[in-house]
Structures are given as C-alpha cells and as structure tokens.
Amino acid sequence: MERTLNFDHWARRELDAVEAALDAWVPADTPAGLGEAMRYGVLDGGKRLRPLLVLAACQALGGAREAALRSAVAVELIHAYSLVHDDMPCMDNDVLRRGKPTVHVKYGEAQAMLAGDAMQALAFEVLTPDAGVEPALQARLVRLLARAAGHAGMAGGQAIDLANTGRLLDEATLREMHRKKTGALLLASVQMGAACGAPDETTWRALSEYGEAIGLAFQVVDDILDCTQGSDKLGKTAGKDLDANKPTYVSVLGMEAARRHAQELRVAAHAALARAGLADAAALAAIADKVVERDN
C-alpha cells in the first residue's frame, strides 16, 4: 500500500472483511436462542477500532493475514462480551448501546450473561484453528488476549472502576484504572497484529508505546464526549458517568486540560510510530488521528 493512504477506503474494505468473518463465525444455531443474543451483541454495530488496529499493525509488518483476521474477530468478541456484561444492572446498569437496547434489556439478564460468556469462549476458539495459523503464533495470540482481558487488564480495570464510584481519584490512579479497563485491550490489538508479522524488539517496543498512547487517548476523548454529546450521537447513554458520580478525565483534570492531554497523547502515538521504523505505518497513523478527532 502506498504511503498516501485513503483511510476511509482502506477501513471500509477491512471492516467488510471483519463483519463477514463475524457473521460466519458467530453461530446462529445454538441451544435456546443463545446465538441470537450473541449475534445481537456483536454484529452490525460499533466502531470496530480494535479490529482495525490489529489489521493495520499486521499490514505495517507484512504479517500473516489469516492470523490477523482471526485476531481481529477475537478481540472484537472480547470487547463485545465486556460491553454486554458491563451494561448489566449489577455493573453499569445501562439500557442503550450502539444505538439500540442493551442485550439484557432485549433478552433478559440471564441470557445476556450467557451470551457474554459464550462470546468470550468463542474468541479463543477462533484464535486456535486446526490449520492456517502456526501453533506457536496461536499460543502467543491467546496469551496476549487473555492477559488483556483478565485481572491484569480489562476485568481488573472494571473492578477498580466499580470500587471507586463516588470517590475522588488523582490523575495517576485514574490513568492506571483506564490503562487496564480500556487501554489493555487496545494495546493488545496492536500487539496481536504486530505478532502476526514477527517484529524485532525495537519495533515491538515502539508499537507497544503507540498502543498505550492510543488506549489512553481513546478514554480521554470518551470522557470528553460523555460531557459534550447527546445520547443520539453517542449511541449510548450520555452523561452516565457524571450521573453515577464516577471519576473521569474531565472531572479530574477539567475540560480544557483533558482536551490538551488528548492532543499530547496523539503526539506521543505518532512519535512512537516514527521510532518503530516501519516502511508504511499510514493506517496506524490515521487511526491515531481518528481516535482523537472523533465525535462519537
């Protein structure tokens, strides 16, 4: 691909591939309608940022396409399962996601819990096919995704979030919470794509720094949008964190400082890409800009 990237064209092509794979691999034929709830929770919605990061990183390194596509689907399944569970009454108690009723509202709490469980399991099944992905690469991808989703990543970050509702946090503690809750899976997306291309240590370290900057920038912008956009624009309940008295970058830093921090993180992401020494990081660079410039 040439350095002058038409990002929208590239993203549309890649998103079509991811959507087709999700449609093929998320089953409809399951006991008691479970597949219907799974498909409702993951198909036809969302920005698909994590799959795009996987595919952009793999492309930048000339990596294995089959492994990258499976990684893109797997990371989106983990993300979708986390949203299904986070929206439930025992967690964030939300009724709107991606512009439609949340899974527990449509299918009931028990079915939503099972749908999330099944999507989590399916993610690792997708990563471990009988053929097409080398066993050593399968193991590395599974480890990266499991670590990002578990106690040291997304689940741990959500636990910190729930434990600190109504409390004042300093910026360092807030950063650590979001590094786990949101950032870990975005970082893993970059790393999984990179792993498909067997990078050297310098490139791996630089891409990891890029992923960390993107992960934090995404959450900072999310906090800003929660205060500045309506539910119809966001596709989820606006002002939810404020109403729940949860700490955010806006509540801790203030709106203008939060905006500046998002720009600082964009600069850091581009600097990390420059250090990676990749022949073509145009898609990764464009994603960094899109994350900070988005309005939903």
Automatic annotation (TrEMBL):
InterPro entries: Isoprenoid_synthase_dom_sf, Polyprenyl_synt, Polyprenyl_synt_CS, Prenyl_diphosphate_synthase
Lineage: superkingdom: Bacteria
Keyword annotations of the record: Isoprene biosynthesis, Magnesium, Metal-binding, Transferase
Record CDD domains: Trans_IPPS_HT (cd00685)
Keyword Metal-binding attached: yes
CC cofactor: Mg(2+)
Database matches in Gene3D superfamilies: Farnesyl Diphosphate Synthase (1.10.600.10)
One Pfam family linked to the record: polyprenyl_synt
Family note: Belongs to the FPP/GGPP synthase family.
Designated name of the protein: Polyprenyl synthetase
Record organism: Rubrivivax gelatinosus (Rhodocyclus gelatinosus)
